[in-house]
Amino acid sequence: MSDEEHHFESKADAGASKTYPQQAGTIRKNGYIVIKNRPCKFNVTVCRCYSKVEFQVVEVSTSKTGKHGHAKCHFVAIDIFTAKKLEDIVPSSHNCDVPHVNRTEYQLIDISEDGFVSLLTENGNTKDDLRLPTDDNLLSQIKDGFGEGKDLVVTVMSAMGEEQICALKDIGPK
């Protein structure tokens, strides 16, 4: 045995806690999936391939393996933070990464001139690291409601280390 102490410092994040594996054939419509390392919400289409002919099947669970290949899941998804369309085709028996998506409500305290918001957390602290949303409709609702002195509660969606304001609730005047 050695008397030396060894200290290892991790500089990389494997991302294991940001996602979990799920078999492609068990993922359902309006669920979440990771495509090109981005968290997405999707609609799913399942295809069976017989030579060069494809049949689209709505339910993953009813898809059977074809004569010359495996059932495939064709995922067409929208990035939940950028709204960009992404696609992937995966054999239904293979695993896909599914992001842990959380929604948290915070009371809006202030909007800074540089576009950051100050939010009141459940334990009474403030959260000051979020920008106003890029969605024009939601942005105008937040700015108008705050300007009118209303009490506003924003919903923040978080997944894979990113956060964004995705909804607004008016709880009345101050």
Automatic annotation (TrEMBL):
Residues 100-169 form the Translation initiation factor 5A C-terminal domain. Residues 1-12 have a biased composition (Basic and acidic residues). eIF-5A seems to be the only eukaryotic protein to have a hypusine residue which is a post-translational modification of a lysine by the addition of a butylamino group. One of its GO terms (biological process) is positive regulation of translational elongation. Residues 1-20 are annotated as: Disordered. GO terms for molecular function: ribosome binding; RNA binding; translation elongation factor activity; translation initiation factor activity. The keyword Transport does not apply. Gene3D superfamilies: 2.30.30.30, Nucleic acid-binding proteins. Keywords: Hypusine, Initiation factor, Protein biosynthesis. It comes from the Eukaryota. PANTHER family: TRANSLATION INITIATION FACTOR 5A FAMILY MEMBER. Translation factor that promotes translation elongation and termination, particularly upon ribosome stalling at specific amino acid sequence contexts. Binds between the exit (E) and peptidyl (P) site of the ribosome and promotes rescue of stalled ribosome: specifically required for efficient translation of polyproline-containing peptides as well as other motifs that stall the ribosome. Acts as ribosome quality control (RQC) cofactor by joining the RQC complex to facilitate peptidyl transfer during CAT tailing step. NCBIfam families: eIF_5A. Belongs to the eIF-5A family. This is Eukaryotic translation initiation factor 5A. The lineage of its organism: Eukaryota, Viridiplantae, Streptophyta, Embryophyta, Tracheophyta.
